[in-house]
């Protein structure tokens, strides 16, 4: 089966998509944008051909109508051909009806084409974002990414729906009429075309400024979207601190920047369009004055002058339309630049050419001389020359102060990040040589930061195994001590849990996340502070569920609460990315070191 990612018009060749043969999209080039968008539209070639044929037919009809006017003035009226007047009227009405039908087909076809292309582009952008590394999301705001997928792609829809095809057709119409007018009277045509270089220079001058302004508009929209996403997702915090007025002022400040950016665009457009209209009227004045002089001298008939004026209107229509469309084109160019920035971003963590897929693993994990630091953290390394062994089928626990590197170790095992030095192996295979999907299919993660989607309980539990039967789902829920409270809901497993599980308690959310991992049935488990924020009763139920989950599997437990790891096969104490103590719970207590300090802080009355 062909890889849909590689076949997309935004990309060429294999691997991650690029804007054509490894070339970076030339930000600022309208023609580059139009050519890339045309490659998208080319996939819908039937609709594209139909739309172009309709618009060309419309141009030919509009080209023919002035000839009827010329024939009427120069032939029918002087020769008093009354018998042809009815045919003339029928012909004009027929042309009008045909123009209406062609305009309907053209409009509906281009709209359908635009929607299909936008559908492909938005899906392509979303898939590409999903394939990027966590480091990319560390650097970019959620609201800004949302704005690029929704607002920026939506702006391009205006360009694709009509503008792009209309520009091609206008170029055809402009060329055809110019050639014909040169045939009618080259002197008049040359005088008329003398105004066009001024139009082109004016368009270039204003176009650059308008696009820069639209870039600011799109960025301000992203700021508004980012603020909205943050405040709506944190509405409980806002209300608990009674900071509604503060957030409203911040939102108003971002909205004001968006308003001011839009006003700047409007002022530029308001200045540009009258200049183009003035130049168009200058062309009309040239035709009227010089054409009248030629007619008075007997070099041109009245019908020819009228036809030339009609063709002048057709010739100026593309120019006038382009002056109106420059707003859309430059806005689309600004949006295209922001989309291309994402599409040109390559993931740092990819499968090696000879990557292997693991069908089953024992779970033996080895860290050998590993060094790692997060991007943008300066010289501050989280791990340096770090060694660690996770025995297959055993429970290994990590404890230590915040910032000691515990969660980083979990992220490196899952290949969310890549170490800068050293090597991590799974069952003897270097992780760099293991297919990422294969690795993560064998891995289950239960963390303190529980992610549940706005859907039903059933949809959330079966997220890692979409084809699970109801029986399998209930078995997983029972093992996670979640079945009873789920059945107590009015709709049972079909109960909607709200955004991020807002309708559930902390313990219920955690047990659903454990049921999700149990259903996935991975061989390697990571528990990252899985019970840190729970009450005693919930912790007891979850400990029972985890005991069932961990049976016979390799497990890495990260914990602040030492009560959760006392039965671990081995415990490692981390400080500043270094293991300072290792052993079982009893062994570490007897050492009278850092572990005992942590234990006595949590259990000051305990006798050891």
From TrEMBL:
Keywords: ATP-binding, Cell membrane, Membrane, Nucleotide-binding, Transmembrane, Transmembrane helix, Transport. Residues 49-331 form the ABC transmembrane type-1 domain. It comes from the Bacteria. Residues 365-601 form the ABC transporter domain. GO terms for cellular component: plasma membrane. Gene3D superfamilies: ABC transporter type 1, transmembrane domain, P-loop containing nucleotide triphosphate hydrolases. Belongs to the ABC transporter superfamily. This is ABC transporter related protein. It comes from Paenibacillus curdlanolyticus YK9.
């Amino acid at each position: 089966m062909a890889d849909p990612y590689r076949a997309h018009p935004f990309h060429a060749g294999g691997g991650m998509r690029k804007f054509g043969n490894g070339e970076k999209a030339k930000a600022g080039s309208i023609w580059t944008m139009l050519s890339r968008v045309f490659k998208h539209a080319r996939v819908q070639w039937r609709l594209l051909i139909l739309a172009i044929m309709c618009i060309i037919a419309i141009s030919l009809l509009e080209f023919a109508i002035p000839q009827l006017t010329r024939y009427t003035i120069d032939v029918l009226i002087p020769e008093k051909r009354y018998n042809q007047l009815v045919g003339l009227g029928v012909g004009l009405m027929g042309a009008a009806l045909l123009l209406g039908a062609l305009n309907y087909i053209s409009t509906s076809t281009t709209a359908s084409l635009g929607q299909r292309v936008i559908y492909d582009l938005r899906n392509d952008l979303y898939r590409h974002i999903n394939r990027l590394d966590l480091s990319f999301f560390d650097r970019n705001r959620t609201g800004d990414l949302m704005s690029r997928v929704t607002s920026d792609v939506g702006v391009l829809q205006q360009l694709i729906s009509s503008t792009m095809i209309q520009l091609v057709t206008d170029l055809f119409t402009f060329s055809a009429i110019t050639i014909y007018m040169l045939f009618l009277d080259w002197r008049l045509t040359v005088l008329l075309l003398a105004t066009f270089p001024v139009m082109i220079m004016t368009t270039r001058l204003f176009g650059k400024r308008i696009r820069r302004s639209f870039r600011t508009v799109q960025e301000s929209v992203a700021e508004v979207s980012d603020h909205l996403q943050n405040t709506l997702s944190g509405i409980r915090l806002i209300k608990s601190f009674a900071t509604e007025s503060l957030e409203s002022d911040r939102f108003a400040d971002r909205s004001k920047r968006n308003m001011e950016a839009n006003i700047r665009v409007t002022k530029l457009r308001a200045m540009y369009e009258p200049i183009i209209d003035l130049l168009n009227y200058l062309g009309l004045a040239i035709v009227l004055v010089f054409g009248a002089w030629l007619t008075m001298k007997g070099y041109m008939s009245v019908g020819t002058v009228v036809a030339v004026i009609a063709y002048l209107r057709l010739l100026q229509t593309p120019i006038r339309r382009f002056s109106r469309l420059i707003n859309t084109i430059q806005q689309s160019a600004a949006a295209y630049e922001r989309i291309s920035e994402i599409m040109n971003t390559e993931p740092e963590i990819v499968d090696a050419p000879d990557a292997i897929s693991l069908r089953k693993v024992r779970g033996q994990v080895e860290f050998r001389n590993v060094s790692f630091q997060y991007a943008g953290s300066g010289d501050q390394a989280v791990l340096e020359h770090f060694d660690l062994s996770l025995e297959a089928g055993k429970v290994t626990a990590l404890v230590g102060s915040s910032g000691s590197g515990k969660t980083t170790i979990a992220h490196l095992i899952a290949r969310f990040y890549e170490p800068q030095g050293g090597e991590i192996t799974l069952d003897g295979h270097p992780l760099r040589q293991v297919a990422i999907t294969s690795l993560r299919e064998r891995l289950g993660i239960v963390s303190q930061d529980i992610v549940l989607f706005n859907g039903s309980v059933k949809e959330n539990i079966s997220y890692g195994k979409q084809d699970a039967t109801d029986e399998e789902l209930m078995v997983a829920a029972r093992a996670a001590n979640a079945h009873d409270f789920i059945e107590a809901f009015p709709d049972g497993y079909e109960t909607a849990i709200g955004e991020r599980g807002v309708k559930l308690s902390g313990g219920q959310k955690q047990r659903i996340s454990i049921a999700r991992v149990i259903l996935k049935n991975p061989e390697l488990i990571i528990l990252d502070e899985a019970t840190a924020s729970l009450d005693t009763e919930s912790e007891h139920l979850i400990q029972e569920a985890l005991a069932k989950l961990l049976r016979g599997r390799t497990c890495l437990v990260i914990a602040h609460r030492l009560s959760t790891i006392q039965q671990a096969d081995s415990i490692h104490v981390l400080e500043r990315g270094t293991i300072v103590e290792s052993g079982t719970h009893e062994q570490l207590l007897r050492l009278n070191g850092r572990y005992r300090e942590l234990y006595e802080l949590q259990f000051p009355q305990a006798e050891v």
